[in-house]
Amino acid sequence: MQAFIINQGVPWQSYVLKAQGGKKKLPHQQVGKLIVATGDAELPILEELYERAMANRVPGVELISSKRVQELEPNVWALQALHSPHTGITDYATVGWSFAEDFLSTGRGQIHTSFKVVGIDMDEVKGVTLESQSGDIVKAKWLITCAGLHADYVARMAGGAKRPVFLPFHSNYKELKPEYCNIITQHLPYS
Ligand SMILES: Cc1cc2nc3c(=O)[nH]c(=O)nc-3n(C[C@H](O)[C@H](O)[C@H](O)COP(=O)(O)OP(=O)(O)OC[C@H]3O[C@@H](n4cnc5c(N)ncnc54)[C@H](O)[C@@H]3O)c2cc1C
């Protein structure tokens, strides 16, 4: 399974797999997540994440002791941790294709991939005209743009305001050497 973490509102808002997964049996495993604090300075951050999880009504989230962390994951040490037992992993490509199939099965639209939008013309009478980098044209009555980190740029193409702008930040994913792959029993550890 290609792991995409179902974050369930600890850092962000809740995620929709439950609604889809209930009916469609999309692949997922509830492995749980541990967000660990390894120094005193990190304890208030953990507390804030806990408050956020409570505000988002994330089920089952607890602040747990160092001893409990070791019971759950013998090779993880922490002063304290946030345990989210219902956090899981899924194969997001499968989830994405499932959304696409649902949409196409309504017969109410098309999906164009590899269609980099380079021009957007908004006309009150003629509607919206989108132009791709390769010169293809798509016309529509309405336009909703969801361009991720390019959302500000694409929104401006459609006549949107200059602000807000996105400020990207860098983060790292580390891959364990094969010989260390079994040191974590089950959970997704975060520090
Ligand atoms: C390495 C990494 C790992 C992550 N892991 C997780 C995780 O495990 N769990 C989790 O919950 N979140 C994870 N996230 C965060 C998650 O991916 C984002 O929050 C989510 O994808 C945002 O969705 P979005 O639809 O707003 O933007 P995106 O998923 O970025 O989609 C925007 C789309 O717009 C397209 N686009 C942009 N400009 C144009 C244009 N001019 N014309 C046409 N198309 C355009 C892009 O190609 C892209 O397909 C991860 C992010 C990264 C970078």
Task: Kindly describe this structure.
With 191 residues, this protein is an alpha+beta fold. It folds into 2 domains: 4-93 and 174-190; 109-157, no CATH class. It is 26% helix and 22% strand. The protein is built from 5 helices and 10 strands; from the N terminus they run βαββαβαββαβββαβ. It has helices at 17-24, 43-55, 66-72, 92-105, 151-157; strands at 4-6, 28-29, 33-37, 62-65, 80-84, 88-90, 117-123, 127-132, 137-140, 188-190. The protein has a 4-stranded mixed sheet. A 3-stranded antiparallel sheet has the order 1-6-2. A 3-stranded antiparallel sheet has the order 7-8-9, with no helix packed on it. The model is unreliable at 12-16 (pLDDT under 50). Flavin-adenine dinucleotide binds at residues 4-5, 7, 115-117, 146-148, 150, 154.
Strand-helix topology:
Blueprint: E1 4-6, H1 17-24, E2 28-29, E3 33-37, H2 43-55, E4 62-65, H3 66-72, E5 80-84, E6 88-90, H4 92-105, E7 117-123, E8 127-132, E9 137-140, H5 151-157, E10 188-190
Parallel strand pairs: 3-10
Antiparallel strand pairs: 1-6, 2-6, 3-5, 4-5, 7-8, 8-9
The structure holds flavin-adenine dinucleotide (FAD).
Q: What key phrases describe this protein's structure?
A:
10 strands; 2 domains; elongated; 4-stranded mixed sheet; alpha+beta; 191 residues; binds flavin-adenine dinucleotide; single chain
Small molecules bound in the structure, each named once: flavin-adenine dinucleotide
Structural class: alpha+beta
Main sheet? Answer: 4 strands, mixed
Placed side by side, the strands forming the largest sheet appear as: 4-5-3-10
